[in-house]
Design goal:
The protein has one helix and six strands; from the N terminus they run αββββββ. It is mainly beta. The strands form two sheets. The chain has a four-stranded antiparallel sheet with strand order 1-2-3-4, with no helix packed on it. Strands 5-6 form a two-stranded antiparallel sheet. The longest helix is centred in the N-terminal third of the chain and has 4 residues. It starts with 5 loop residues before the first helix and ends with a strand.
């Protein structure tokens, strides 16, 4: 088995704050990935709708808290 290199580690995406919509069909989550040039972990929000392809909701890397406000509304 190969050892984990620093370059490989920086390619990982870290998922957090998984939260189902009240109806249980959609899932929102945060995703962070290392930015070695800036020495940060930019974090964006994603939506998995009906278990299909994830949709990126933010792109500035500064996503914070979010909450479901009904079955089809996500506040962030």
């Amino acid at each position: 088995m190969k050892r984990l290199s620093l370059d490989a580690f920086t390619q990982y995406r870290f998922l957090s704050d998984l939260n189902c919509a009240p109806e249980g069909r959609d899932l929102a989550f945060a995703c962070a990935q290392a930015d070695t040039e800036e020495n940060t972990y930019p974090r964006d929000l994603w939506l998995l709708k009906d278990g299909k392809t994830p949709l990126r909701l933010t792109g500035d890397g500064k996503a914070g808290a979010y909450v479901w406000d009904g079955p089809h509304t996500l506040l962030f």
